[in-house]
Amino acid sequence: MNVKTILAAKGGDIISIEPTADLAAAAKLLSKHRIGAVVICGAGGRLSGILSERDIVRAVAEHGASALAIPVGQVMTRNVITCGENDSISDLMERMTAGKFRHMPVLKSDRLIGVISIGDVVKSRVQEIESDAAAMRDYIQTA
């Protein structure tokens, strides 16, 4: 199973925000969509960063409540690890675990086509295991 399979099932909806928006707006966006990270798109809609709930918590811990007025561009992760639609699920699991992050933008020819979360990865892996188990049960019953 690969990233393309996950995107086909979940869709390619992308929630994004501009780097000039403040952290309060980003927090509201995360809450509204019930997501843990938002991609930051710059000129031409190109990926320029990602902002997670953890990034917001760190900013608040460092600056207090005034952090909510800080532009997203000052807090976001700039060195974003991305994947392609042909990357395997096991590769994503390894990269997310090693990097200790839970969201990965998906690029196709440098164009953002989706975002995969660790929840998406786990869900697809569980479905794959359940399918394999069902096939094994069917095989045993017909043998």
TrEMBL record:
The record, for Pfam families, names:
CBS
Keyword annotations for this protein?
CBS domain
Residues forming the CBS domain are 8-66, 76-131
Give the protein's recorded name.
Answer: CBS domain-containing protein
Ion transport is among the record's keywords: no
Recorded hits in PROSITE patterns, A to Z, give: CBS
